[in-house]
Structure to design on (1293 residues):
């Protein structure tokens, strides 16, 4: 019985195999395992769209080299992610893996890619292990190290002169890292830390605690829907005016701002990129993105775009050789000779970005909530784990 | 009645032997990754099998079975982590030795099952369903809050899979064979069990608990032992799962995982031998290939929203295919319902 | 010293007293019949004895032992065995399987995980004996759910006997049986008389009065009379209790 | 002190909210003997209907109004097509079938309204906080939820204990056959009951809309909690559901509010925080386990219920 099933399945998959075979000039195959479904789905969609936008600009090429991009949805589930990447490696024989959004996926799939000897280039998730002890010559991060934007929030809060802060995060690793990152650069006093259940969506109890604690500012890292719910209830409770809200870019992307509407005005957030950054690459990106998708890009879209541009620069340098000339391709990536939409960009020795960080304020501009850059809080910032990394 | 069951047993054995050759078949298809998919299927089939011991034999519907899978998985993961970090776990060094960590995983899962079972088995019916769920949820949140071991993000096996003398599990085929053999052994063991005196008591328990008491057999200890055995086997599948994934996370214990296992059992046919295996195969294949399938035949709507088909499929099986796939496959044979009859 | 000694037993459900200051003695070796109008609390009494119900007050002594401290599942081991009014067997097991399981439970715990139970031929042949005794030896391989109702009752009896009871509680063993089937049972009871002490609950008065050594009459949870069948026939109280219910056959 | 009162209010609000969903669940299980995992989906339908209605009309109230027929209709359809087939099946089949139903409904919703969560904001009149005690500001909307919830609870209590329909329902939970024997049209009763449950769930969804993000899968989270509520309270009894819901609401809220800070008195900070957070997320299930261990039938079981 199950043999029969297997054969049926086999033929089906054989069909797939053929479908992907036989293109004229063998293109460079790029696997993108990303999160398109679940509440966090829009992150993956933006990364994908940003990436494919860059590919489209060169109609199907990157750095003049034809590429074939396989996009699949991991549903934010490491098990699915693993299966997909397995398929990428064994069937599609990709030479670059990218697209991972969440930090519960990357630790599963990155080692698979690296063990297989292909390149892993992250457009978003960047857990500390891979920035430090586990850093790898074929592992690159275009976005930021996971702590970066939280650290920036710490700097920002200090620069804005806040003395008493209350911190809020889900009770899981990324949440704790976030608070750690904030505290690393915050000079003021942390009067309380509240940990909530992952996926919690009613914050009455926590808000009551905040009201009682009367902090000058609140720093919270509640990803996706959690953050939106919190912000709405926070402003419903009329706390926005009593204690300022300082968050990292994730909690104040354009999607979220649209969702919470006026409740969002005044939120301070940090980012390595913003639409009002004035550089040619950014202009081109914004123009292209708005035309194609008729919506505002989030920082994730900018990261996807940068990732594609980085790959393009490297492919150009090696004339399309990836696995045939790993050393060459690696050097080309390291050189990062591309115009990032965020301006300055280069790689640290652990192949995570060195870049500038900004704090932004949410303002209402002709009916639309949007982030406006207040000031730069860090120049050539690099993450705290670079010393632990053996690469030079 | 015994005929059909013996036939089924022989069938499983035969197909099982054929399946040893599957990796080569996959090679011939030039689809080596199918091997890893298949190993995953056997591992889940093992878990479903162990759940079937409770649901199918003893009539205990446990809605928290993924807890024991998860515990077993974490034992292997944590031992490997300590090995990698060269730290101690309550004075014990970590290890990558499969011969140590896999049995240890089974033992720990068994012990956990003993504790939880001892309490849950005081209830029956829907209450039992809910209390098993409750304990599973507790364990879920417990592992989420285990910062040291990655909390919500889970643990990777940095040094790769367990080491077993004479085997190189890093090689997918050998992982496949290990999973297949584990499933085979478990099936054999459970079959012996169901025919033993102990098995008889379990079957009797499912059929008529009051009567069992009236002939002087207190059900509780038997249920408890069954619960522990099921837990230990689930632990084994968890241990294999961690090896297969080279990763473990609380997601393994999420209540929907328990649901999946239950569905595999029901889908395949409760209280049958081929049932849990068929269930696991179909469930996982659908889950993985339904999207691709629809993509191939150009139904892009469904390829993204394959659950739109999967859901009604489940409902259909419940409403129209009583006894699950097993009944569909073996319906020409009589006495599926009496498959256990002594 | 009687085998079973019941004193001032009380059991109420809400306002209803199903068992009301009930006292009863069952001597070794006798076949003691318990009759009474519907709702007199006969089955309740059986349940109290078998342990599936707990009395509110009172005392039950079995074989010189306070029964109320013995859990339900242990009582059969002391030799106190019941058969069910509503047929209760293991439907998926064969007739033989049902009895074998009983015998297995007789041999202490069943924590034997490896040996195939049905290959225990000694056990099975012993089981066959009991089936023969109740006249089911032909049907031994048929699964219980496939047996005719009467045959299931017989199986029920075989299972009860297999427990080698000191006291057998028979709750309407002939309920729903055809005449010739019930005749079989009556014969069987005749055989067992003397060997096993029995407490028989039965509506079939002819049967009761033909087999019973002593009869007790239960009305509203209270024993109003106990005596030999003939004494009971004369008892006026009983007649009034039964007025219009059953008429009591005159011996000829 | 103020803080405590506010947290108690929060607990009450959460509990009342859980009750709205649980009520239907417990009745459906009680009288029809059906475990309906898809009950959460009805709650989701309510929430979506409100969101969509608001997008069309721009008024929260119209959205709220739309939630009811939407939920009722879905409930009716579901009962007609699927649940009706499940009355006589065992719990396992019910779990599997209704699980399939969840997958289907979730996916359908995804197709219709996309995966990105929808958000609806309150009318200005409601999005304010009122000072109910000197120094105690409390969001008006949450007060509203408490009010309506308790009102509905009372209404249900009246329906169950003082009307003919209620009499039948109560009888149905304990002596199904008897009710059938009375020649009552059980099918009609069941459908009506199911729709009632759907209405309540849908209404709860509508109320939840402005507080939490309206997204696919919002049903399941609530569902599990509600099962906990009704199991703790005792299956099939409205009183039990209310009791269980309030208990859960309080325990969950107070746990989140005070556990961590309490533990800090006895434990070093970082332990206290993570243990506190872990415990408070477990508290609900811990409670259920304890209750079931000591009262395997729940705290207020339906009297005379035969298992």
């Amino acid at each position: 019985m199950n043999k029969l099933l297997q054969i049926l399945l086999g033929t089906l998959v054989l069909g797939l195999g053929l479908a992907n075979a036989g293109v004229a000039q063998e293109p460079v195959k790029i696997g993108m395992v990303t999160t398109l479904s679940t509440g966090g789905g829009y992150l993956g969609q933006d990364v994908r769209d940003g990436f494919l936008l860059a590919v489209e600009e060169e109609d199907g090429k990157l750095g003049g080299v034809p590429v074939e991009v396989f996009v699949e949805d991991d549903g934010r589930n490491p098990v699915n992610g693993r299966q997909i990447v397995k398929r990428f490696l064994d069937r599609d024989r990709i030479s670059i893996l990218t697209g991972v959004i969440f930090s519960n996926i990357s630790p599963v799939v990155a080692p698979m890619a690296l063990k297989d000897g292909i390149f892993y280039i992250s457009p978003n998730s960047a857990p500390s292990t891979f920035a430090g002890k586990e850093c790898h010559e074929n592992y690159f991060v275009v976005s930021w190290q996971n702590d970066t934007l939280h650290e920036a929030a710490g700097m920002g809060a200090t620069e804005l002169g806040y003395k008493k802060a209350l911190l809020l995060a889900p009770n899981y690793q990324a949440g704790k890292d976030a608070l750690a990152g904030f505290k690393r650069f915050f000079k003021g006093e942390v009067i309380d830390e509240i940990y909530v259940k992952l996926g919690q969506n009613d914050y009455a109890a926590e808000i009551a605690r905040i009201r009682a604690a009367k902090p000058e500012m609140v720093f919270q890292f509640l990803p996706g829907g959690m953050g939106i719910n919190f912000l709405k209830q926070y402003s419903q409770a009329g706390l926005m005016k009593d204690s300022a809200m300082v968050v990292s870019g994730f909690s104040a992307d354009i999607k979220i701002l649209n969702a919470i509407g006026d409740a969002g005005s005044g939120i301070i957030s940090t980012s390595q990129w913003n639409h009002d950054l004035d550089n040619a690459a950014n202009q081109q990106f914004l123009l292209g993105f708005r035309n194609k998708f008729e919506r505002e890009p989030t920082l994730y879209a900018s990261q996807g775009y940068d990732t594609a541009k980085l790959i393009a620069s490297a492919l150009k340098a090696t004339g399309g050789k990836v696995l045939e000339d790993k050393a060459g391709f690696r050097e080309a990536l390291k050189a990062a000779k591309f115009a990032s939409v965020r301006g300055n960009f280069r790689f640290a020795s652990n192949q995570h970005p060195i870049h500038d960080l900004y704090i932004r304020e949410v303002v209402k501009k002709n009916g639309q909530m949007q982030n406006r850059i207040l000031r730069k809080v860090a120049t050539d910032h690099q993450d705290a784990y670079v010393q632990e990394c053996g690469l030079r | 009645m015994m005929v059909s069951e013996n036939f089924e047993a022989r069938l499983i054995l035969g197909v099982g032997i054929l399946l040893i050759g599957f990796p080569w078949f996959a090679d011939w298809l030039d689809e080596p990754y199918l091997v890893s998919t298949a190993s995953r299927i056997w591992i889940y089939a093992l878990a479903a099998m162990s759940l079937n011991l409770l649901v199918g034999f003893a009539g205990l519907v446990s809605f928290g079975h993924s807890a024991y899978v998860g515990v077993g998985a974490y034992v292997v993961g944590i031992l490997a982590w300590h090995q990698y970090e060269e730290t101690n776990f309550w004075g014990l060094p970590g290890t990558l030795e499969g011969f140590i960590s896999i049995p240890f995983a089974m033992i720990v899962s068994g012990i956990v099952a003993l504790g939880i079972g001892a309490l849950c088995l005081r209830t029956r019916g829907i209450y039992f369903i809910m209390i098993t769920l409750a304990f599973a949820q507790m364990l879920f949140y417990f592992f989420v809050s285990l910062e040291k071991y990655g909390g919500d993000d889970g643990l990777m096996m940095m040094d790769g899979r367990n080491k077993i003398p004479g085997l190189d599990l890093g090689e997918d085929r050998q992982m496949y064979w290990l999973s297949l053999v584990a499933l085979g052994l478990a099936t054999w063991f459970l079959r012996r069990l169901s025919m033993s005196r102990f098995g008889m008591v379990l079957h009797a328990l499912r059929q008529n608990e009051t009567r069992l008491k009236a002939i002087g057999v207190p059900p509780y200890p038997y249920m408890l032992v069954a619960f522990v055995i099921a837990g230990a086997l689930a632990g084994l599948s968890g241990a294999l799962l961690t090896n297969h994934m080279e990763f473990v996370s609380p997601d393994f214990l999420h209540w929907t995982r328990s649901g999946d296992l239950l569905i595999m059992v029901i889908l395949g046919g409760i209280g049958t031998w081929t049932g849990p295996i068929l269930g696991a195969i179909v469930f996982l294949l659908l889950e993985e290939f339904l999207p691709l399938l629809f993509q191939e035949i150009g139904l892009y709507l469904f390829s993204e929203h394959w659950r739109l088909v999967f859901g009604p499929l489940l409902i259909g099986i419940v409403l129209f295919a009583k006894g699950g796939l097993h009944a569909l496959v073996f319906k020409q044979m009589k006495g599926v319902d009496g498959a256990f009859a002594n | 010293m009687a085998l079973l000694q019941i004193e001032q037993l009380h059991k109420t459900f809400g306002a209803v007293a199903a068992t009301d200051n009930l006292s009863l003695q069952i001597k070794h070796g006798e076949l003691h019949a318990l009759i009474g109008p519907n709702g007199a609390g006969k089955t309740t009494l059986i349940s109290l004895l078998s342990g599936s119900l707990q009395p509110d007050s009172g005392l039950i002594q079995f074989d010189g032992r306070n029964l109320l401290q013995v859990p339900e599942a242990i009582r059969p081991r002391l030799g106190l065995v019941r058969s069910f009014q509503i047929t209760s067997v293991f439907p998926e097991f064969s007739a033989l399987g049902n009895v074998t399981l009983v015998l297995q439970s007789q041999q202490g715990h069943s924590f034997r995980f490896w040996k195939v139970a049905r290959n225990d031929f000694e056990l099975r042949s012993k089981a066959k004996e009991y089936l023969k005794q109740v006249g089911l030896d032909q049907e031994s391989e048929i699964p219980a759910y496939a047996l005719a109702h009467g045959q299931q009752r017989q199986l029920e009896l075989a299972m009860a006997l297999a427990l080698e009871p000191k006291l057998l509680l028979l709750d309407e063993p002939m309920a729903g049986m055809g005449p010739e089937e019930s005749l079989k049972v009556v014969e069987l009871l005749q055989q067992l008389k003397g060997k096993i002490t029995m407490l028989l609950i039965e509506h079939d008065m002819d049967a009761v009065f033909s087999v019973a050594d002593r009869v007790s009459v239960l009305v509203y949870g209270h024993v109003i009379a106990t005596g030999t069948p003939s004494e009971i026939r004369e008892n006026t109280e009983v007649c009034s209790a039964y007025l219009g219910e059953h008429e009591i056959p005159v011996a000829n | 002190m103020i803080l405590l009162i506010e947290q108690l209010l929060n607990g009450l609000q959460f509990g009342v909210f859980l009750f709205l969903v649980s009520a239907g669940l417990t009745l459906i299980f009680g009288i029809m003997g059906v475990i309906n995992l898809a009950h959460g989906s009805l709650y989701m339908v309510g929430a979506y209907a409100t969101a969509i209605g608001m997008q069309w009309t721009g008024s929260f109230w119209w959205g709220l109004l739309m939630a009811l027929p939407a939920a009722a209709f879905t409930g009716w359809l579901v009962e007609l097509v699927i649940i009706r087939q499940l009355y006589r099946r065992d719990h396992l089949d019910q779990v599997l079938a209704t699980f399939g139903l969840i997958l289907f409904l979730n996916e359908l919703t995804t197709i219709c309204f996309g995966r990105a969560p929808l958000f609806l904001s309150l009318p200005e009149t409601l999005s304010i906080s009122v000072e109910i005690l000197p120094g105690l500001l409390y969001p008006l909307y949450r007060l509203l939820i408490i009010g309506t919830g308790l009102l509905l609870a009372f209404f249900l209590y009246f329906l169950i204990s003082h009307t003919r329909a209620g009499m039948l329902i109560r009888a149905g939970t304990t002596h199904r056959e008897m009710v059938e024997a009375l020649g009552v049209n059980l099918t009609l009763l069941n459908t009506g009951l199911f729709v009632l449950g759907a209405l309540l769930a849908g209404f709860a969804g509508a109320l939840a809309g402005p507080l939490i993000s309206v997204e696919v899968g919002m049903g399941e989270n609530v569902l599990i909690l509600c099962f906990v509520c009704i199991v703790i309270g005792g299956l099939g009894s409205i009183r039990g559901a209310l009791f269980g819901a309030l208990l859960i609401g309080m325990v969950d809220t107070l746990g989140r509010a005070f556990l961590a800070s309490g533990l800090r008195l006895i434990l070093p900070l970082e332990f206290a925080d993570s243990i506190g957070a872990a415990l408070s997320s477990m508290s609900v299930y811990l409670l259920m386990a304890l209750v079931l261990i000591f009262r395997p039938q729940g705290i207020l079981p339906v009297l005379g219920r035969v298992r």
